[in-house]
Amino acid sequence: MPLYDFPNQRVVNHLITDMPLRVSALRSLGAYHNVFATESFIDELAAAANADPVAFRIAHLKDPRAQAVIEAAAKKAGWKPGEKGTGSRGRGVAFAKYKNLSAYVAVVAEIEIDRSSGRIKVPHVVAVTDAGQIINPDGLANQIEGGVIQSTSWTLHEAVRFDRNGITSRDWSAYPILTMPEVPKVEVELIDRPSEKSLGSGEAAHGPTVAAIANAFANVTGKRLRDLPFDAARVKAALA
Question: What DSSP state is assigned to residue 160?
Fold first, then answer.
């Protein structure tokens, strides 16, 4: 459930109990996909209101801790109100509180688009998290960094391919992941709240990362990517 305070909301939950395929859990469970959807739409609402996406989010949140992580991420990233992408580079912002129970995370992602090949690169990501009282700062930062990198890999590359006979993506050429040269520079800032209980953070960065990348693409191109992963074919189709 989005944490934003809007006077009129209707959230529809589609539960499919008879699955055509045998599936298992993805890290972050539904948060990766749901935050991608909700935070993409929040950006669309901001655009419709002719509002800066950072200011729009802060204005529609009542939770001061949620507001604080967004403000801190924007400040650390040097966000300029109303900024637009230029040429092939753009930036996007996204926020979530994992399952509405765990850590708060705000992400600002920078992307580069090669319009001829359809490839997206993510050179730089800023992430700010509030996980309550911090017990192990290095461990917390590692969780957020790892979540950002794994989410970037999912977003740009990863998809299981299959046909009627079974899975066809059986090696790394058919199931590519993020390579070392593609890994973004990740800057993490932690907000310590010693008077608050510690919050889970292991899967909190995945949703905001994919949404920030998607919002960055819209920021620089004016087009929306609504299907994952953002591979070359989908990028070219969106740009066309």
Answer: -
Residue type for 38, please?
T
- Give the pLDDT confidence of 193-209 residue by residue, as tens digits: 999 999 999 999 999 99
For residue 44 the two structure tokens come to 């669309």
User: Chain centroid to CA 172: how far?
Assistant: 24
Q: What is the DSSP string of 96-110?
A: EEGGGTS-EEEEEEE
Buried b (16+ CB within 10 A) or exposed e, 29-58: eebbebbbbbbbebbeebbeeebbbbbbbb
| Widest CA span in the chain | 55
Report how far residue 116's alpha carbon sits from residue 114's, in angstroms, rounded to the nearest whole number. Answer: 6
Query: Using CA atoms, how far apart are residues 177 and 139, in angstroms rounded to an integer?
Result: 24
212-237 confidence digits (pLDDT tens)? 999 999 999 999 999 999 999 999 99
φ/ψ of 119, rounded to 5, equals -90, 140
pTM score, whole prediction: 0.95
Please report the sign of the dihedral spanned by the C-alpha atoms of residue 180, residue 181, residue 182, residue 183: positive
Percent of the chain with pLDDT over 70: 100
Please return the burial class of 173, using the count of CB atoms within 10 Å of its CB with bins 0-12, 13-18 and 19+. exposed
